[in-house]
Specification:
The chain is of the alpha/beta class. It has nine helices and twelve strands. The structure holds NADPH dihydro-nicotinamide-adenine-dinucleotide phosphate and oxalic acid (OXD).
């Protein structure tokens, strides 16, 4: 059983050692290898041409948590697709979402503006219990983020496609319950996958269902956000601020209005990153499950798009 790896070379060096320890064949694109022996591909965005050279390919493993970068329509039907679930990604997202939520909760966008203007402008504290944070997406990452926010005492909500029960979280499901979910969220965190159903979901219609002066954290994908809608809602004060980690396209072009907007905090898609050692071990555990005929952790329902 051989895995072909086509991603960051520094991570590849670590993976090579771990795969050798586990006695699983490992090749990088530059290594001499027989394409016909490759059953597993670990990649971020493999070309259709590369996949066409791998007749024995059984599983495409995403190097990251998302799989929207794959050209699913051009992937042979029998190839199974697995997103990355590993502790490094989860920990990074928990840190980032908590940081961003606390930043918005403690009015850091307004304090930053006041600082740059040389104004001493205290803002009255709102107790966490009077602030509601809502997470769109109750998957691996959404639930981990809610779990990390719970000890602060925030009121918490979550929204997903199918119904979930999460301790300490008011859960909403489906399009019919989206308005009820949004109405309460002072801080909205998007942790959805990008699919045909979720593209453009952070638009004027959605964002204006939030309370006055609500704030947004987008750590899902840039394609979730309708940029012009956010800009106009920020400019007329309907939305008070946004922390954005993902953009469409990435990198965000020079001169884009987001770069210098006083009410936007931007980071370059760094909310979380795949950690080399734990990701290799998670992927190997999935190969073992697959070899044993068991379900893989994070297998994507291709027809559903996530
Ligand atoms: P999961 O697949 O575990 O969870 C996805 C969640 O979204 C599920 O709860 C699912 O509902 C919900 N969902 C999907 N479609 C809809 C819909 N149409 N309406 C309502 N809810 C929907 O994904 P992860 O938690 O692992 O990751 C989420 C996303 O986070 C990734 O796809 C990626 O885009 C982003 N990400 C960003 C990173 C960054 O650095 N910025 C890093 C890692 C991930 P249900 O439970 O009912 O299926
Ligand atoms: C992602 C990741 O999917 O970095 O964004 O894992």
């Amino acid at each position: 059983m051989t895995l072909l790896y086509t991603s960051d070379p520094a991570r590849g060096r670590i993976w090579r050692g771990i795969f050798a320890d586990e006695a699983i064949g490992f090749a990088e694109a530059g290594d001499a290898h027989d394409p016909a022996s490759i059953r597993y591909l670990a990649a971020w965005n493999p070309s259709v041409e590369l996949i066409a050279t791998l007749p024995a390919l059984e599983v495409l493993f995403s190097i990251g948590a998302g799989i929207d970068q794959f050209d699913m329509g051009r992937l042979p039907d029998h190839v199974r697709v697995v997103r990355m679930i590993e502790p490094g990604i989860t920990q990074g997202m928990v840190e980032y979402a908590t940081m961003a939520a606390l930043m918005l909760h403690r009015n850091m966008i307004d304090h930053g503006i006041a600082q740059r203007e040389g104004r001493w402008a205290p803002i009255k504290l709102v107790p966490a219990s009077e602030r509601r944070i809502g997470v769109m997406g109750l998957g691996n990452l959404g639930q981990a983020v809610l779990g990390a926010l719970r000890p602060f005492g925030f009121a918490l909500s979550g929204w997903s496609r199918s119904r979930h029960a999460v301790e300490g979280v008011d859960c909403f499901a489906g399009a019919a319950e989206m308005p009820a979910f949004l109405t309460g969220c002072d801080i909205l965190i998007c942790l959805l996958p990008l699919t045909d159903d979720t593209r453009g979901i952070l638009c004027r219609e959605t964002l204006t269902q939030l309370p006055q002066s609500a704030a947004l954290i987008n750590v899902g994908r840039g394609g979730h956000l309708v940029e012009q809608d956010l800009l106009s809602l920020l400019d007329d004060g309907r939305i008070s601020g946004a922390v954005l980690d993902v953009f469409d396209p990435e990198p965000l072009p020079a001169g884009h209005a987001f770069w210098a907007h006083p009410r936007i905090v931007m980071t370059p898609h760094v909310a979380s990153m795949t950690r080399a050692d734990s990701a290799a071990r998670a992927l190997i555990a999935n190969i073992r499950r697959h070899e044993a005929g068991a379900a893989m952790d994070g297998e994507v329902a291709r027809s559903r798009g996530y």
